[in-house]
Structure formats: structure tokens, C-alpha cells
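Z., the sequence and structure:
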Amino acid sequence: MSVAPGWYVDPADPETRRYWDGEGWIGAPIPVDVTPPEGPPPPEPEPAPEPTSPASASAPPAAELPSGGTPPATWPQGPPTGQPGGGTPPGWPPGGQEPAGAPPAWPAGDTPQGPPPGWPYPTWPGRPPAPRPHGMPLASFGARLGARLIDFGIVFVLNALVNGWFVWRYLQELSAPLDEFWRRVQDQDRTTDPLPAAGDQAGALVVTILLIATSLWLAYEVPSMAASGQTFGKRLLRVRAVPVEADAPLGFGRALRRWNTLGLPTLLWYCCGLGLLLQLIDALSPLFDHPLRQALHDKRAQTVVVRLPRTPDDPANPPGETR
């Protein structure tokens, strides 16, 4: 899934932001602590032509080949401009000179926009740096899992208080088949007769219990996530959910979409545990997502989970900002 257009922290220089148009970076970078403008940056002015020296007047510039003319036999001095950081591309000798035996530079009449035919496109040298959305590092899977377990413990206590009577009534409806099953185990009875049916209200009680449990989870998580991007568990583990495009509150609509993907499958626990399986897949999905470690509910709401600093001088602080 591609990242939506917007201003993001430049992975090549975490102290700046650049505009991502859905396919690549455009425009000049701005400092990371400056509020970006609305929409894409204005087009950059055309650079003024540089005066040509008598020695180079006989050769046409690489970017301005005359119509129908013959391209230069070799690359100009220095590596292609697409190389990140201005370094020498893989396979080039030091100094930026073209290797011996290189293929022809460009077909006649074409304008160079990348490496010549037969050359691999320059890539990031080595392993690219980890993303820092809005200048903050991504939260680890362990921190996210710990925060979620704390939140589940709180929701479980709420269910014990509110749902306890319904659970007790449900167990009463199951007492006949449970007692008969336990008797057969103790007596080693190998009869194949079916167990007694559960009470008439067992099915309605299951639906009621799941509805209450889902409602309690929604009431606990969505308002706090909408306001601050944090539940109680996330506050303890110092992680926060933020939108991909800006360091801002999620808002109720985005927080509800984020919770729906993980919380609503609770209603499907009645269907042979299908809901629990879907929630398990969602919980483990950040382990397999790169580079932003988004869970399925993060992708639905276009959010990322970041780690907050513990002290004002923590490296997780964006330049010029203390949290």
C-alpha cells in the first residue's frame, strides 16, 4: 500500500521534511520543526544558465543535447545526480570517472534523466535508516504488545464488574451438559449418547455478553485515542499513535476506524473463535510490515505508533521540541 501524498520527515536527513507526492520526493526540504505549508511546495524556479568556458564551449551540456545531435561518448565528470548523498554509485571508481568499457551514454536526441542504458539505477548505499515519523522513532513490537496487554487487563476488570451476572447466568444454563460430561469422565463412561442440551437462554446470554464486552472496550479506548493517541497502557509504556501525515490528535473518526478493525471481531467469538483468530492476525501484523511497522488497524486509519522521549534530552525528541 503506497503512502499518501504529504509532508514527511526525510529518511536521508531526519532534521528536515520533504513533500512526498505518492511516487517520490519533490521540492526543497524544510526544517523538521517548521510547520509545513498546506499542499505541495511551489515549483522551484528554473536555475540561471551558467556561463560556459571556452574549453567546454565545443561540447554540448549533458542535459541539453541539440535535436538530432550526437550525445557525448562518456558520462560527464562526477556521479549521476540520483545517487543519495552525492556519493559515487556502486561499481564506479573513486573520483566519479566512468569505468572503462561503459556502454554508450544516451540515444541521440534524448535528455539524460538517469543512468545510461545497461546501467543499474542507483540505490541507497547499504541499509537505509529506520523511519522517524515526525522526528520520533517507531515504537517496538514489545512496547506495543505490553501496552495492549495492560489495556486488556483493564477491560477484563470492567467486564468482571459489568458482565459478571450475565456470565454466572450463562454457566447456570450450561450446568446440565457440564455436569453430565464431568460424570462420564469420572466414571470412565464411554457411552456415545449426546450430552443434554444447554438451557434455552444460553444463546441469548452469549450474544449479550459479547455485546457488553465490545461496548466496554469501545468506551475505554476510542475517546482516549481520539484525544491524545494514548490509552492508559500506552501512557505507561510511553508510546503514542499519530496520523501518518501530521503529528496531531487522531480525532474521533480516525480513532473509531482504527478500533473497528481490532475490536469489532469480538462479536465473532461466537463463531468457533473466528473473531479471536482475526484479532491475533491483526496483533501480529506489525512484525511483517516494513518500514513503518503498521498493524492492520493502523493501515485502516493511516496511523503509526511512535516512542515518546523520557527526558527533554532524549534522542527521540525532534529538534527544537520537548515532550
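The first helix runs from residue 141 to 162. The two ends are 31 Å apart (CA to CA).

Let me know what you think.
H.
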